[in-house]
Amino acid sequence: MSEESVRAQLKEYGFEDRIVDMTDSLATVALAAEALGIEEDEIAKTLAFMVEEKPVLVVMAGRARVNNHKFRETFHVKAKMMNGRQLMDLVGHPAGGVTPFGVKEGVEIYLDETLKRHPVFYPSAGSTDSAVRVSVEEMEKITHPVKWVDVAVENE
């Protein structure tokens, strides 16, 4: 279901031709960047959290990491990552293929300020071996985020 829901949503916006299917795994930021021939920071990673029993996705630049203090200030709870079963049940995507596209109803999406560093990013396309090339503006248009947040710090 994951890849199909992503492809369906991207097709709605005319972006289905932007999906890149690879034979190599893109399950981590490092693997994806290497396979696509880009910098790690050009990967848009999607992190999944449980916030007061609600599934929340935060999309940020590949080299960034969650700052627990900023996360608590923004969401008023401690950052608690989802496990693999929760990802499939609540979000609809597998670990390594989590993306802000084609998610289940009720999932809240937030875009982190680190995405404003580059004009184009490659988030997952719903599997561990696919990605999609989108601009920041296109990602915002497709995902309809709740809002932009600042919950990340650079991973040096």
What does this structure look like?
By secondary structure, the chain is an alpha/beta fold. The protein has helices spanning 2-12, 29-36, 68-75, 84-91, 136-143; strands spanning 19-21, 43-51, 54-61, 64-66, 108-112, 120-123, 130-132, 134-135, 147-149, 152-154. It is built from five helices and ten strands; from the N terminus they run H-E-H-E-E-E-H-H-E-E-E-E-H-E-E. It has a six-stranded mixed sheet. A two-stranded antiparallel sheet has the order 1-7. The chain is globular and about 40 Å long.
Quickly list its features.
156 residues, alpha/beta, 6-stranded mixed β-sheet, two-stranded antiparallel ribbon, 5 helices, 10 strands, 28% helix, 28% strand
Report a brief summary of the structure.
The chain has 156 residues and is an alpha/beta fold. Helices cover 28% and strands 28% of the residues.
Q: State which percent range the strand residues make up.
A: 25-35%
What spatial order of strands do you see in the largest sheet? 8-6-2-3-5-9
Fraction of residues in helices?
25-40%
How many alpha or pi helices?
5
Instruction: Give unreliable regions as ranges.
Output: none
Q: Could you tell me how far the N terminus lies from the C terminus, measured between alpha carbons in angstroms?
A: 36 Å
Q: Which term fits the overall shape?
A: globular
Average of pLDDT: 94
Q: Count all strands and give the number.
A: 10
**How is the biggest beta sheet arranged?**
6 strands, mixed
Q: How are helices and strands ordered from N to C?
A: HEHEEEHHEEEEHEE
Structural class: alpha/beta
Radius of gyration: 14 Å
